Amino acid sequence: MNDKQIRLAVGSLLSDKRLPDMDIDAEISELIAAAKDIAASLNGGTGSIGGTSACGSIFNILNGNSQNMTYSAQPLTEKPICPQNNAPANAGYIKGVSKEIKALIKSDGMSETLVNKLLRLYEEKLTFVPSACSDIPLFDHLKMTAAVALCANAYGTISHMDKAFVIYSIDMSGIQSFIYDISSKGALKGLRARSFYLEMLFEFYIDLLLERLGLCRVNVLYSGGGHAYFILPNTKETLSAASEMLSELNRGLMETFGSSLYAAAGYAVCSVDDLCNVPNGSYRRIFAEVSEMIGANKLSRYSADEIRRLNAPVQNDHSRECTICHRFAKKYDNDRCEICAALESLSGSILAPDTLFAVENADSSRNGLMLPFGKKLISVTEEEAADLLKTDPAVLLYEKNGAFRADKPYRNIRLGNYVCWGDFAGLVNASNGIKRLAVIRADVDSLGQSFVNGFSKTGGGKYETISRTSVFSRKLSEFFKYHINYILRHGEYQLFDNILKDTRRNAAVVYAGGDDLFIVGGWDDVIGFAIDLKNALKRYTQGTLTISAGIGIFSEKYPISAMANETGDLESISKSYNNGSKNAVTLFDESGSYGWEEFEKKVLGEKLAALKAFIENSSTRGKAMLYKMLELIRDKGENGKLNVARFAYLLARNCPDRDGAEKDAYIDFEQKMYKWIQSDTDRRQLVTAIYIYIYMNRGVDNDA
């Protein structure tokens, strides 16, 4: 960024009257004033939607919701902060933030580092402070003001009808196969390291793109899960530079990974009116156009020259392949390709909570992970980072989930990085009951529709604006990339009520992106976490969004790619639940697919609870009867009907002879079982509950 761009960005970020003043010249002042007016328009007006001085929730008006819940002014924390009724405004809070901003300006002066530090400080401290439009936080409003100012500077004078902006999007293909298609050797570290590598590759590319365009992170509307959206100036120079950068990225990916990873882009030019949904429907057309272009570019990935390069013979040793990712490569290190060897070498530091990462030239002597554009990703300590800054003040330094520190110029990466054990064996051995590993894959239901139409049902379309989409995207990304760590660290639902447990889940995040996740762990903790996830998302989004999940249970030695694929199939079954209504979880197989409320209240809260209460308080009856019950339920005759008489006989012959409390409890249990097996719904729930109970009471063995 040049001096004018820096002053524009800083001035825009200070343009709220509650924040410190800054002396600026007339030209910059005029641009910022115009950007403020446009940003107010992008909010849908300057009025307070909720009629309150507290920060309103974006979920108040999502998907037809009509609540009026608010947040008290407070810092962003790893613990999810949920909206509440009549939250106190905490009017004096921003005065303390303003003092921090003054100190920051004094120490850093007018610099690009100051811009990045202000953005980090604002995200942490101004996420729950309202702008003039109460459901748009001050952080997001000032960020949008700065983005508009930088676009206006590049484009020139902007009216509401000028096609002055470009909504530009990048989408990375091949992520899942890159992460999951590896051998089982050191699988957990490998999975997490590969996920982290892609996250860093994408974030580095975003920073490099913005640097070349003379912009900064204010122009990023959303990034996560291999997707990103930007608001850019509609100039030939911008579009040309973005296109060249994308081509260079794909050349680097092709040279290293062949055709397995590819980035496609799409864009739409638009005006202020379009971004404000004037006339109604204009806003949706922007994203439809972007999506259509990305789809077309994915269908025609490569130029003729690139296809020839892909198909050209290479001087690889085809007599062997990488023992981790199974690719043929140009360089090997103990039967591992260059990337897998570097990932394995850096896996410990990648997973360490306090490690910093720097991007430097690929020809440096330090070990690191190769990146496109002739760069390398290295891990560094704080002392090493300080030395790097002395030799190159512009070096890119990244930290994971760090709290803002005014004296550190680090860029912060939100990352789901919770881990209880570093390998599958640790997770399996720490599980209760049967020693099995579980995988959960989950993602938000119909998220595309929520982005496109989520704000159309309230206010006749006037709330369909880029500002609200940006806030919504950020909130969801924070949930999956940041708050997920707290949810795992503070488990609530427990299958075992007779075991004193640490609240920390016996689990590890492999991947948690903008709206989906892949987590492995002990089978019992993964089921408990699934309930926590559903409940936390419901509280966080005021019930406006739902999630569907698949949970697969496997032995420790099962192939990683098969775990991923089979659990993905279970997730797809959940997405098809109840004729596509979703909001479901599928456990074991298709017969174990349930709506969340049914699973929690009927399978676990009713059927499993009844089994536990009876068998654990019975002196003579146990698991043998459960196995026999399962056998009878499965053993339907030629007519496909359950032999109810045989089931009734099984229950009757096990009834205690002597009258008393035990016999009374058995009769109550017998009546429930007899009733449930005659209903298709109850019988299916009972079978799932029996399987779970058996898993809870199995020791270490080799039987699934």
Question: In words, what does this structure look like?
Answer:
- By secondary structure, the protein is of the alpha+beta class.
- The chain folds into four domains: 1-157, no CATH class; 332-410, no CATH class; 424-587, Reverse transcriptase/Diguanylate cyclase domain (Alpha-Beta Plaits); 603-696.
- It contains 24 helices and 19 strands.
- It has a six-stranded mixed sheet. A five-stranded mixed sheet has the order 10-11-9-12-13. A four-stranded antiparallel sheet has the order 4-5-3-6.
- Helix 1 runs parallel beside helix 4 (112-125) and helix 3 packs antiparallel against helix 4 (112-125).
- Residues 46-51 and 700-704 have low confidence and may be disordered.
Précis, in short:
The chain is an alpha+beta fold and 704 residues long. It contains 24 helices and 19 strands. It folds into 4 domains: 1-157, no CATH class; 332-410, no CATH class; 424-587, Reverse transcriptase/Diguanylate cyclase domain (Alpha-Beta Plaits); 603-696.
Question: Which helices and strands appear, and what pairs or packs with what?
Answer:
Blueprint: H1 3-13, H2 26-42, E1 55-56, E2 70-71, H3 93-108, H4 112-125, H5 138-155, E3 165-173, H6 175-180, H7 187-213, E4 220-224, E5 227-233, H8 236-257, E6 262-270, H9 272-275, H10 282-299, H11 304-311, E7 332-333, E8 336-337, H12 338-351, E9 356-361, E10 369-371, E11 375-380, H13 382-391, E12 396-400, E13 411-413, H14 424-429, E14 437-444, H15 447-453, H16 466-489, E15 507-512, E16 516-522, H17 523-540, E17 547-554, H18 560-575, H19 577-580, E18 584-587, E19 593-595, H20 596-615, H21 623-634, H22 644-653, H23 661-676, H24 680-696
Parallel strand pairs: 12-13, 17-18
Antiparallel strand pairs: 1-2, 3-5, 3-6, 4-5, 7-8, 9-11, 9-12, 10-11, 14-16, 14-17, 15-16, 18-19
Helix pairs in contact: 1-2, 1-4, 1-5, 2-5, 3-4, 4-5, 7-8, 7-12, 16-17, 20-24, 21-24
